[in-house]
Amino acid sequence: MNETLKHKISQLAAKYYKNTRDWRRWLHQNPELSFDEQKTSEFIASKLDEMNIPYKKGYAGTGIVAKITGATANGKVVALRADIDALPIEENTGLEFASVNKGVMHACGHDAHTASLLGTAKILYELQAYWNGTVLLIFQPGEEKFPGGASLLLKEGALLDPKPDLIIGQHVLPEMQAGKVGFKKGMYMASGDEVHLTIEGKGGHAAMPHSLNDTVLAAAHIIVALQQVVSRIVPATIPTVLSFGRIEGKGATNIIPGKVEISGTLRTMSETWRPILKDKIRHITQHTAEAMGVTCNIDIKDGYPMVYNNENITEKAIEFADDYLGKANVEQMDIRMTAEDFGYYCQLFPSTFYRFGVKRTDGETGDLHTPGFSLNEQSLETSSGLMAWLAVCFTNH
């Protein structure tokens, strides 16, 4: 790839850093929950209007897909994705641009993702004469809430004309130094399904267990029995987690309740084994409940599919990132059992999803999804510049 173009992108990423930072601060101060990102969408549209970049809005309610064409359309169609929604968390960062919306916070870095993509758009538009092909900019709502904005956006045909040859997404990583990025080829993030079990039987006095059905004991047996789903059913080569984080039985020291509710999550790195594991959960739960003399309603809600990074696309992205940032700043990531609706894109298009470091040097960064999360804003220069570089490399590759 042209060294001059790489230098120009790097220069513009630095030149427009303040713009990107200011956009991120506005977004951080005005967070909106999933599928309710009205002002956020209006803000994004206003910035695209200022850049003279055409777009269509209203996907999944508040989503926007913009398009930039290079010197000619003779090249690949590369889609770049940013999520725009915030979380129901009360902010506790002390920032002067902290959230003004009580109980809502950009605690997962989506403000940085959105601002970075706007910065990337500004760079790509200014350098249109230097690259060929088409870049789509996806500003996607509702990543944090089922069924996921990605699934709705795709169902509404947002990426049918033109159809991307590949899709690239990025996400903040608080434990990584700013200026660094991380990639993982192949399976990267797990699918995420919800498991809800409602156990019912005849409740009664705890001192007379022979006259009732012990729903609490049945719940305990079901939880223990389901541990074999991971330890004995799924192959050891496939990372899988089945965890239960909620159990509620409204009894007392001397009362066995008539109903106990259990909720948990199933995570796996195999879309082939995913339905098999759900069937096993149903089978084991039903038969254990019957053996304990109770009934059990089993409700497994399908969540996001796994994120699978196309090996060829990711290998090339690593090479391009090495060239732009230097090999010392490009790291290999481990798999994560967290889920992301970017997995929907991975099912339809060759895709890669990577991380960029946002660790602060002047204070506590905090963890994702916590009230104190506060990123290193200098990372925005890296995130906007690298994404622009990846886009032009892939359109011309």
Tell me what the structure shows.
The chain has helices at 3-15, 17-29, 38-50, 110-126, 149-155, 215-225, 228-233, 273-291, 311-325, 343-348, 379-396, and strands at residues 55-59, 63-69, 77-83, 134-140, 166-177, 181-183, 186-189, 191-200, 204-205, 240-249, 255-256, 259-268, 295-304, 307-309, 330-332, 351-359. The strands form four sheets. The chain has an eight-stranded mixed β-sheet with strand order 1-2-4-3-5-16-6-15, sandwiched between helices. Strands 10-12-8-13 form a four-stranded antiparallel β-sheet, with helices on one face. The model has no long low-confidence stretch (mean pLDDT 97). It folds into two domains: 3-189 and 306-396, Aminopeptidase (3-Layer(aba) Sandwich); 191-304, 2-Layer Sandwich (Alpha-Beta Plaits), CATH 3.30.70.360. It contains eleven helices and 16 strands.
Shape: elongated
CA-CA gap between termini: 9 Å
Helix/strand order, N-terminal first: HHHEEEHEHEEEEEHHEEEHEEHEHEH
Question: In the CATH classification, which architecture of the largest domain applies?
Answer: 3-Layer(aba) Sandwich
Query: What is the CATH class designation of the largest domain?
Result: Alpha Beta
Query: CATH topology of the largest domain, anyone?
Result: Aminopeptidase
Q: How many strands?
A: 16
Strand line-up in the sheet with most strands: 1-2-4-3-5-16-6-15
**Rg, alpha carbons:** 24 Å
Task: Report the mean per-residue pLDDT as an integer.
Answer: 97
Percent helix, as a range, is 25-40%
